[in-house]
Amino acid sequence: MLDQISSPTLLLNEQICRNNLKKMADKAKRNGMKLVPHFKTAQSQQIGEWAKEYGIREITVSSIKMAEYFCGQGWDNIHIAFPFNPRETKKINDLAKDQSLSVQLINVAVTEKLAMELENPLGFFIEIDAGYGRTGVAVTDFELIEGIMRMAIKTDKLKFKGFYIHAGHSYYEKDIEKLYDETRAALNMLKNKYRSEYPELVTRTGDTPGCSVIEDFGDIDEMGPGNFVFYDLMQVNLGSCKREDIAVALAVPVVDIHLGRKEILVHGGGVHLAKDVLTEPDGSKNFGEVVFLNENGWEIPSERSFLKSISQEHGLIKASDELLAKVKVGDLLGILPIHSCMTADCMGAYLSLNGQIVDHVEGH
């Protein structure tokens, strides 16, 4: 498999990916929840087929384009977890002819446009902002929540499904347990307030750090994490997983070695990895960590080496003595990404360990 690689290539370890899917599916089941994974990370029909083997019947996506890619694949429902863009009303109408879909609504104006123009059934969640501040309706803004509901009932095409919180601040808040106390409380309050009127309403939460570490989800009905299918170094840094749980690595060719400076130049930069970065204890930047590639996947070295800088096509590795002793010009090294979603998006395809190309929306 490695013999066929001549330029930066994103390797996918199917077994690790399946283990991650199974572990999260088992966790959802233990908690009596439905797992509706967010496929903005994998963006792959093939990985979707693996997910179905673990009882996953619905998925979440982040755009109409991605929803279109997954239509016709046998999903019970595809949820678009992004505040609905009214300019895409015609497209959602067309897709909803043949596929059960749901969207997120956060204001009355967009709800009104859908109520007036929808020709096919469409589910919707009201997205709640429980403190993240990026998007969503404030949890106590009942006037806006009820305004959206009132507008929706003007048509039989819009069906209210429930409330959705993406606790995105779990990526930088240290106390995830406290954050989930707030999420549980917010969703429980909304469920109690509106379930007499909407007895089938569900609540959903969706961040990977929380879904990975929290054990008590209260009465939340559904979870929708995404990054967990691959994980990455950001998630390792947050305590969501171990390095051994990361399912993708960028294979990069070694083009030069500077023994005196303990640096290795590789073909692999921002156009392959994106520019997400972690900060080392000494203040230096880390754009990805080195692993040793083999035909069975990769091995995590005993001494850590990492990309200290990247440009568009180049990457410069701060190399350990172990790495310098082992590597020569022309070899391939693996780089564990800081943010696997962005790296996968940049690369647009995966190479499995058995040499098969695995699809990605962006390579379609």
Automatic annotation (TrEMBL):
Q: Which Pfam families match?
A: Ala_racemase_N (PF01168), D-ser_dehydrat (PF14031)
A molecular function (GO) held by this record is: glycosyltransferase activity
The residue range of the signal peptide is none
The Alanine racemase N-terminal domain covers 17-195
Q: Give me the segments passing through the membrane.
A: none
Q: Which SUPFAM superfamilies match?
A: PLP-binding barrel
Instruction: Tell me which UniProt keywords the record has, alphabetically.
Output: Glycosyltransferase, Lyase, Transferase
Question: D-serine dehydratase-like domain: which residues?
Answer: 247-351
Recorded hits in InterPro entries, A to Z, give: Ala_racemase_N, D-amino_acid_metab_enzyme, D-ser_dehydrat-like_dom, D-ser_dehydrat-like_sf, PLP-binding_barrel
A biological process term (GO) from this entry: D-serine catabolic process
Family as reported in the entry's similarity comment: Belongs to the DSD1 family.
Which named protein is this?
A: Amidophosphoribosyltransferase
Organism phylogeny: Bacteria, Pseudomonadati, Bacteroidota, Cytophagia, Cytophagales
